[in-house]
Amino acid sequence: MAIPIESVPLLDTAAGVIHVRRPADGSPLEDVKIHDATQVTEIAARLRQAQVEWEGIGVRGRTEWLSRMRQWLLDNEDRLIEISREEGGRVRNEPLLETILMVEVIDYYTRVASKLMSPKRVRGASPLVLGKRFTVNRSPYPLVGVIGAWNFPLLLTFGDAIAALFAGSAVLLKPSEVTPLAVRELVRGWRDEIGAPPVLDILLGGGETGAALVDAADFIQFTGSVATGKRVAQRAAETVTPISLELGGKDPCLVLDGANLNRAVNCAVYGGFANNGQVCMGFERVYVEAGVYDEFVERVVAKVKSLRSGIDDHSDIGALTSAPQIDIVDAQVRDAVAKGAKVLTGGHRMNRPGTWYAPTVLVDVDHSMTIMREETFGPVLPIVRVADVDEAVCLANDSEFGLSATIFADTTKRAEQIAARLEVGAVNINDFLANMTCAELPQGGWKNSGIGSRASASGLLKFTRTKVISSSWLPAMDSEPNWFPYTPTRWRIFRGAARLVHGRGLGRLGIS
Ligand code: NDP
C-alpha cells in the first residue's frame, strides 16, 4: 500500500539515510546513505589531489573526456529519464530537455574552452608601461562545489559542472535530497563506465551536507531558493569563498493588444505548466491588456482543462516533485481565494496517492496576495487584467525577483521597447525559455534572483582566477627612475614626466 507521502520524513538523520520516494504514488523508492561532514572533507581532499593532473592534461585532454561523457549521456538517456521520472514524478519530456541542454553545453564549451582558457596578451596604453609585456593567464579553482535544486536535478548539478570541468576544476555535486538518484547514476557513468579521471563525485544528503560542501570547496555554484541562497552566501563569506547564485523567480508574461493570441495562449499554458510549474523561469504572473483579456482567459482555461495529469507517455503534467511544495501551492491558492480571487479551474489537491495538484487558473488576483508576490513553483497561473502597457510594466517590475519575462505584442519593435523597461535578466519575445536553450548566452537573474550567471564565456571564466604575468622586452636596467633613493632631482624628473603625459595644454609644462 502506498504510504501517504507527507507522513515519512525524507531525510532521516538518526538512521543516516534519505528515504527517496516516488512522488507519483508516495511509495518508497530507495534508502540512500547520507555523507557526513568527515566524509565530505575526505572526498574533497581526494578530488583536490586528482585535480592537479586534470588541470595538467590541458583543455584538449579534458575535452576528450567530456566528449566521451557526451556520448554516454546520449547512450544512457533513456535510463536517466526513467530514473528522473520515478524520483521526480515527472513526465518524460521534462528530463529529456535536461539531457538535450547538457549535450548543448558540452558542444558549446568544446568549441570555445580552448580560446577562453588560453593566455591573453594585453597592451597597456599608458607611457608608464612602455617596454612592458603583460599576459593574463587563467587558473581554475581547484575544487568547485555545485549544489542543485530538485526541479531539474541533472541540469542544475552536472549541467553546471560542465564548464568547471572544461576549466580544469574538480567538481563535487550535491543534488537535492529529494532527487539524488539520477545524478548518482550520472556520476557512476563518469567514473565506472567511461573510466574518466576521478575529478567528479557526488555528496548525498540534505542541508547539512550542503553546508559542509560550502566549507570544503573553493567556489560554490548554487541553484535553489532565495532563503537558502542567502544562507550559502553567509557561510561562504566566512571563508571568503566566491559564489554564483541562481535563485528563485516570479516571472511575468505580458500579453498586449494586437498579439498573436493563438501563440500567446499556447505559450502561456506551456510556460505556466511545463514541469508542473516547477521551473524557475515558469510564468507565475500573467498581465493581459483589456482588449484581449476575455478571449485570452477563456481560451487559456479551455486549454488547461485539457491537460492530462499523470506520468505515463500520454500525460502532460506530473506530480509535484517535493512533497512540502504541495502545501505551499495550496496555501497560496487559499490565501488568494480568501482575498477575492476566483478559481476558473483546479484550485485543489487531486484525490489520489502522491503529490498531485490540479492545474489551476486564477483571476481577480492582485499584488496583496502571496500568489502574486512569493514564488509558487507549482501548477497555478494567475491572470491579471491591465488597462495598458504602462500598468503591465509597472506590475511586472513590482517584485523582489528578476529572472526573466515574456512579452507578446503586435510587433517585435514594440516588444523590444517594452523589454528595455523590465527589470529582469532575460526577455523572451513571443516565446518561453528561448534564452535557456542557447549556451552562448549568459543566464542569470536580477534582484533577489541571483548573483552571476551560467553558460556563455562568463559561465566558464567564473570558475577561474586570473594570474597576470608582467615582464619587459627592453634590456633590464639596474634601477628605475622612481625607485630608491628619493632625491629632489628624481622628484622633478618624475613629476615633470607625469605632467607631460597627463597634463592638458600648458599644464603639460607645469604652467597653470
Ligand atoms: P532549496 O533552496 O531548498 O535547496 C537547494 C539546494 O540547497 C538543495 O540541494 C538543498 O539540499 C541545498 N541546501 C539546503 N540547505 C542548505 C545549506 N544550509 N547549505 C547548502 N546547501 C543547502 O531549493 P529547492 O531544492 O527547493 O529548489 C527550488 C528553488 O530553486 C526555487 O526557488 C527555484 O526557483 C530555484 N531554482 C532556480 C533556478 C535558476 O536558475 N535561477 C533554476 C531552478 C530552480 P536539500 O534539498 O537536500 O535540502
From TrEMBL:
Organism superkingdom: Bacteria
Pfam families membership: Aldedh
Active site: 246
Keywords from the UniProt entry: Oxidoreductase
Annotated ranges, domain Aldehyde dehydrogenase: 16-469
Gene3D superfamilies with a match to the protein in the record: Aldehyde Dehydrogenase, Chain A, domain 1, Aldehyde Dehydrogenase, Chain A, domain 2
PANTHER family: ALDEHYDE DEHYDROGENASE-RELATED
Family: Belongs to the aldehyde dehydrogenase family.
Protein's name in the database: Aldehyde dehydrogenase
Species annotation: Nocardia vinacea
